[in-house]
Amino acid sequence: MPPKPTGASGVARRTAAPPVPHGNRDEVYAALDLGTNSCRMLLAQPRLGGLDVIDSFSKAVQLGIGLEGSGRLSRPAIQRTINALRICRRKLNQHNVRHMRLVATEACRRASNSRAFIETVRRETGLCLDVITAEEEARLAVISCAPLVKPETEQLLVVDIGGGSTELVWLDLSGLPPARRRDAILDMHGGSLTGDTGSVRVVDWISVPLGVATLRDQFIDVEDDCGCFALMSCHFEEHLSDFLPYGREHDRSGFQIVGTSGTITTVAASFLGLKRYDRALVDGLDMTSDQINRVIREYLSLGPEGRRCDPRIGRDRHTLIMPGVAILQALLRSWPTDHLLAADRGLREGLLYAQMRADGVMEPAVPKPALAAGKTI
Predict the structure, then answer these.
(1) CA 30, CA 51: separation in Å to the nearest integer?
(2) Radius of gyration of the chain (CA)
(3) Residue 299, φ and ψ in degrees, nearest 5
(4) What is the DSSP pairing of strand 201-208 with strand 285-288?
(5) Sign of CA dihedral 194, 195, 199, 201
(6) Residues with Cβ < 8 Å from 3, sequence gap 6 or more?
(7) Which of 16, 205, 219, 345 is the most exposed place for a label (fewest CB within 10 A)?
(8) Rounded Cα distance, 163 and 68, in Å
(9) Residue 174: how many CB atoms within 10 A of its CB?
(10) Within a 13 Å sphere around the CA of 22, how many CA atoms are in the beta-carbon half?
(11) Model confidence over 181-240: pLDDT tens digits?
C-alpha cells in the first residue's frame, strides 16, 4: 500500500468570502468521470441550492479490467472507452458546453500507459482528460455530499467506494454554526485536504487502493462465495489501520456517515425492493446498520446466479456488488454506528458544484431532508 496521505489537523479557520459571479446561470456545465469501471457524464445548469440536470451519460467501459495483472490499460478496454467518449463529445457539442471538467481517476493513475491513453483520447475525440490525484477525488466526493449534511452534524465521515479505490474523509464541523456547515463544505472547492480548507477542519483522509473492481480481481480465483466475501472484507479492513480515526471511540450524537457509490445506492434500492431504480427514493435514504446487514445476508443467500438475475442489482453490477458490500461491511465494523446516509451523487456532482461555486453562479446549499428507510415520497 502506498504511504498514507498526511492528515490536516490544526488547519487555520477562516470565513470564506462569497465568490464574485463571473458566469451565466443559464449556461450548461459539464462533468465527466472516467473511472476504473465506468465512464459517466452529467450536463447541468445551476439552480437554487443545487443542479438542474440537462443530460447525462453512463457506460460500464471496464477500463481497468486486467490492470491488476498487467499494470497496463488493455487495447479492448481503451477502444470501449474511446467509443463511449465519442458519445460524450457529441453531447457536449449538442449543448454547446463551454464550462467543463473532464477527469480520470484510479485506473489512469496506476496504468503505465496512461499518458499514451490520454493522448489517444485527445487525438481521437478532441477531449482533454485530466488525471486527478486521489486527494482531489476525495475532496470532490465530500463537496458533492454537502446538501445531505445535517445541520446538527459535528463529525462527518464521507465514504466513496469506487471501482479502483475507496476514499474516506473525516471532517470536524464543530467549530461552525449549524446553518453554515453545508456551505462551508461547498467552499472547499478552492482548497485541499492537506492544506487550507477554509473553515472546515479535516481530521484525516485516506485513499485505499481497493475498489469494487480491483478487489474482485484480487479474489477472483476463490470459488467459495461466502469465503470470498469474508476474505475481501478482512483484506480491506487491514488497509484502514493508518487512518487516524480508526479504532477510536466516537460519540454517536453529532456523528454522521454519508456513503456515495453504486454499491451503497444498490444496497438502498435492494432494501426498498425497487425493481426499477428511483433516485428520488434512494438519494438521502437513512438506513440503519442492521438494515444494511440484512441486505448483505440476502445477497449471500442468493449466491452468484441469484444475484445475476436479481433486478434490484442489475446485470451490469452483479459481479461487483459483493466486493462493494465487503468494503461497506468492513467500514460499518470499524465505526460502530446506527445509521448510514445513502448518496446518489459523487465525483460528477462534486465537479459541477466546484465549477459553479468558483464562478459564483451557485446559490447557498438547500438542505435535502433525510428519508427514513422505507419511506416513499
Answers:
(1) 11
(2) 20
(3) -60, -45
(4) unpaired
(5) positive
(6) none
(7) 219
(8) 12
(9) 11
(10) 6
(11) 998 898 887 766 765 555 788 989 999 999 999 999 999 999 999 999 999 999 999 998
Amino acid found at 88: C
Give the burial string for 314-349 (b: 16+ CB within 10 Å, else e).
beebbbbbbbbbbbbbbbbebbebebbbbbbbbbbb
Is residue 201 within 8 A of residue 9, CB to CB? The reply is yes
Cell readout for 132 is: 486527478
Residue 26 burial (CB < 10 Å; 0-12/13-18/19+)?
A: exposed
Q: How close are the terminal C-alpha atoms of the chain, in Å?
A: 43
- Three-state DSSP state, 112: coil
Q: CB of 2 within 8 A of CB of 72?
A: no
Distance CA 115, CA 125 (A): 15
- Rounded to 10 deg, the angle between the 321-334 and 289-309 helix axes is 170
CA of 239: how far to CAs of 39, 243, 250, 323, in Å? 27, 8, 20, 15
Q: Which residue has the cell 427514513?
A: 372
CA 252 to chain centre: 23
Measure the CA angle with vertex 32, ends 27 and 38; round to 5°.
Answer: 150
Any idea which residue has 436479481 for its cell?
310
Residue 253: per-residue pLDDT: 73
- What's the rounded Cα separation, in Å, for the pair 99 and 82? 21
Instruction: State which residues of the chain have pLDDT below 70.
Output: 1-24, 49, 191-192, 194-198, 244-252, 336, 363-377
Helices (H), 31-180: 67-70, 75-94, 106-110, 114-125, 134-144
Distance CA 290, CA 220 (A): 28
Phi, psi of 148 (to 5 degrees): -95, -5
Which residues, 6 or more positions from 263, have their beta carbon under 8 angstroms from its beta carbon? 161, 212, 320, 321, 324, 325, 327, 328
- What is the predicted pLDDT for the residue at 18? 46
Q: How much is the pTM?
A: 0.82
27: nearest Cα among 43, 5, 45: 45
Which amino acid, residue 305? E
Comparing CA positions, the residue from 313, 99, 340, 316 lying closest to residue 213 is 316
Q: Which helix (H) or strand (E) holds 210?
A: none
Grid coordinates representing 85 are 467518449
> Which H/E stretch holds residue 115?
helix 114-125
Cell digits for 257?
456517515
Query: What is residue 16's predicted lDDT score, i.e. its pLDDT?
Result: 41
